Amino acid sequence: MNWWSPDIFAAKQHNLEVRMNVIRAIRGFFEMQGFWEVETPALQVQPGGEVHVHAFRTEITSPDLQTRQTCYLHTSPELAMKKLLVAGCERIYQICPVYRNAEGSSIHTHEFKMLEWYRTDADYEDIMQDTIALFRHVAEAANIKSLKHKGSESNPFAQWQKISVCEAFLKYAEIDLSAFLPPCVNTLAKVASEKGYRVSEDDSWDDLFFRIFMEKIEPQLGQGVPTILYDYPAHMAALSKVKTSNPKLAERFEVYVCGLELANAFTELTDAKIQKERFEADMAQKEVIYGSAWPVDDDFIAALEYGMPEAGGIALGVDRLAMLMSGADDIKDVLFCE
What we know:
Blueprint: H1 6-11, H2 13-32, E1 36-37, E2 43-44, E3 57-61, E4 68-73, H3 78-87, E5 91-99, E6 111-120, H4 124-141, E7 147-149, E8 152-154, E9 161-164, H5 165-173, H6 185-194, H7 205-217, E10 227-233, E11 249-257, E12 260-267, H8 272-290, H9 298-307, E13 311-317, H10 318-326
Parallel strand pairs: 1-5, 9-10
Antiparallel strand pairs: 2-4, 3-4, 5-6, 6-13, 7-8, 10-11, 11-12, 12-13
């Protein structure tokens, strides 16, 4: 039956009411914290910075129909929001639709709702505290005692688990990843093979990382209480500052609840030269893997050259949060239209 059938739609009415309460509570939280709610264009020269994310491509046509400029629907409002930090905004958030091609599963869809917030004079540890406070505020406002997904539960009001990526590999996969950070791909392959993981001759370091992570680590995260997984390998965080104490790691964290990844955060990189080099390297890799790449947003690089203040920021999937708050197992069950 079609999603707009009254019987089908009625079955998810409770989930949609929870979704509305979640979004209302998010806005209330940031209003109390003195944030501005901002809006940025969905059409961008560079839709994002991710190697393995795919964007929708389109064109802007001039009024006389003689010229066309290639652009993309944004996969995140991140670059535009950081330009607002350069412009003088200090505490900003946005709830907006974002678009990612080649997506589709019970937790993925090609158009979904993203919450992003940024604040100056902050780092990823400050954003961790924001995130915990936001989850608790939203759960309390929506009268939710625990977060649920596919038979698992997680209590946002209890003390959250904080574990580094290297600690998680040691705890759940029995691999001391700190000894095999890039470019040690051959050594990691040897250890992974000895531990019984499938290893191919053409595996990259990332292939091995994600194979082990998806099999042994991700399912363990956010069980009972939400998990903050922090300090990723530096090359996996193109928009993040590296740690002063260990340049092989980046000040990046992700949030997991009931084994479901929900948010991605950084201490933001403000160095224009390093940022451009990272973008160019990632887009070169994207070209090799997928046969196409995005142009670098030179206006964003110019904004960084002008001077972006120290800041922390995060992107959080609103639909997945609504799933956890309502207990829905499929993202379609928290969407008004499919």
